[in-house]
Amino acid sequence: MGSSIQQATNDLMNSRYAIALSGAGISTESGIPDFRGPKGIWTTDREAEAKAYQRYELFLRDPKSYWEEMLGSKGTYGGFYDEVRKGKPNPGHYALAELEKLGVIKCVITQNIDGLHEKAGSKNVVEYHGGVHKLRCASCGTRFGFEEISLENLPPRCKCGGAIKYDVVHFKEPIPSDVVERAEEESLKCDLMLICGTSAVVYPFASLPRMAKLGGHRASIKVVEINAESTPLTYEGISDYLIQGKTGEILPEIVKGIKLIVNSR
Ligand code: NAD
Predict the structure, then answer these.
(1) Which of 6, 95, 129, 208 has the maximal Cβ count within 10 Å?
(2) What is the pTM (predicted TM-score) of this model?
(3) β-strands 18-22, 164-166: how paired?
(4) Which secondary-structure segment (H or E) carries 227?
(5) Contact 192, 163 (CB under 8 A)
(6) Is residue 114 lining ligand 1, measured as CB closer than 6 Å?
(7) Which domains does the chain have, with CATH numbers?
(8) What is the pLDDT of residue 129?
(9) How far is the C-alpha of 53 from the C-alpha of 170, rounded, in Å?
(10) Measured between alpha carbons, how far is 72 from 164 in angstroms, rounded to an integer?
(11) Nearest Cα residue to atom 32 of ligand 1
């Protein structure tokens, strides 16, 4: 076991309330590409990035066209959602679920829209950017399963009259207030934040580690990154240390180390 993995294992064991933050990097080993890694969707296709930035404005201006684009555009974002819905958890997701079962991790706040943490067995999950498995009324915020809503007449409408969209939070769309509240509460409560597979450049999600580390009297909080490369959190000294490598390899090592300690007591 590498020394930084050993250190993370000890830090987790000594924590009172550890939480995990995750990003697209934890799901690349499930075959779902990230956006900004070396092989990311946007690193290789700038047009897809430009389109994604306009999606929420399209929904506000013309929700019918939004739905037609989402349902009909194989190979663009609609195709990406279909691909994401079929994804299966990898050892990184299972390791976080295991850490929750062991009582070490109390909550996962994810930027991912793929639902793989829940599929792996994590229970207390905050989907900061929503999920592809749900729909949401843009007016009253009620969430629905796909099976509850007919897509015969577009856009689908909620009982309150509001237009329904994917639960996924598009660029320039506000994060739903219930999600912001839960994420901030968890970030301010934790004494260790384990950040897995995020470039930490998408705001306001990227402000959570800063809030945890710099908020008031909280200088003693530990912030640990597991990522394939350095991020602004590494350069700016927000993280105490970076374990560089794959989440699907490093997280199971940490679980192994924790089980060894627990079983030797
Ligand atoms: P990002 O693409 O900006 O960054 C991913 C980071 O993970 C990169 O630094 C990359 O080097 C690293 N990485 C890639 N594979 C890794 C691995 N196996 N182990 C460790 N690190 C690895 O992703 P982001 O920070 O999550 O931001 C992108 C936004 O796009 C998010 O808001 C998210 O909602 C969305 N997104 C979600 C999915 C998904 O649900 N799976 C996929 C793509 C994008």
Answers:
(1) 95
(2) 0.93
(3) unpaired
(4) strand 222-227
(5) no
(6) yes
(7) 3-32+89-129+175-264 (3.40.50.1220), 41-86+136-166 (no CATH)
(8) 97
(9) 8
(10) 17
(11) 111
E strand or H helix at 96: helix 91-101
- Rounded Cα distance between 117 and 157, Å, is 29
Q: 160: pLDDT confidence band, cut at 50, 70 and 90? A: very high
Q: Hey, which residues are catalytic here?
A: 129
Beta bridge partners of 137: 164
- At residue 77 the predicted structure's pLDDT band, cuts being 50, 70 and 90, is very low
* Confidence (pLDDT) at 218: 62
- Which residue reads 């050993």 in tokens? 6
Residues 173 and 151: their CA atoms lie apart, in Å, by 22
Ligand 1 mean position, distance from CA 185 (Å): 23
Regarding the beta carbon of 115 and ligand 1, being less than 6 Å apart is answered no
Instruction: Phi first, then psi: give them for residue 58, nearest 5 degrees.
Output: -65, -45
